[in-house]
Amino acid sequence: MQQLVEDLLNGSKRAAARLISLVENDDLQKIELLKEIFPHTGRAYVVGVTGAPGSGKSSLVDCLLQQMRADDLKIGVIGVDPTSPFSGGAILGDRIRMQEHALDQDVFIRSMGTRGSLGGLARATREAIQVLDAFGKDIILIETVGVGQSEVDIVRTADSTMVVLTPAGGDSVQTIKAGIMEIADIFVINKADLPGSEKTITEINMMLDMKKSDKWRPPVLPTISVRSEGIAEVWGALKEHRSYMEKSGYLMEIRRQRVSRELTEQVEYLVKSRIWERVKERFKLDSLVEKIVLRQKDPYSTANELLEQIKFYGENGKEGD
Q: Considering the entire predicted model, what is its pTM?
């Protein structure tokens, strides 16, 4: 495992792929691996790309890759795809659309299945970001699975978030319902050659005017990704937003919030894991489940009884609650 980490830091694509697989599969050595690479993270800028299914997110990301590579940047892409109901893996739609970059040594593309996670991201997405960050990527693009009205987890993960909409698809109404107005740093109206694009752009701008925020005002940019039109403007807006975030100090602020949230979640994960370890060691769960099924016990009282009987060791080495 130490050799795997060294290979990652030396630029091995194979090591990066292997490490992402280990964290995605929740390998027993995952925590040790993440501890090893953590000192080498914190340099990459994370860009989220979210929007409804069929809005052209993958095609847009493919075009953005060309713009970013023209600036000689090293790019990592994580495409979160629906999980296959047959194999349990990701349906590799993103890799198919971005296959022309497959041979570029400075581009790393990885599809991840949601594996039942809600919110538009895979459960291991943030850990995969750390791997690509340590791998030396300048920018990491995260394309979410097609999202609905509440699946906006990307804002907790990305430094800049792009929301991709399409004209005449009811997206402007969905934007209001979903609260996407609160998470978008850049609006992209893709497939702008379709009827209704000007109306959609006007509606989004009117909603932004009603917000009257003193902070960053998200630009609303039309694109036609299949013809690579408007992509340079989107890339320019991303660079402008990053500059704003860095100069205002807001980038460090949202990263502090992210670290605080991740620390809290990690503590909760460890507490939960240790509780279940003790439960499985001391109690016959199958027997308790059977009693609950037969209505001899209820799940609420049983859960309280289990917690009352579990003890943990404190700092002084003595057993305590």
A: 0.83
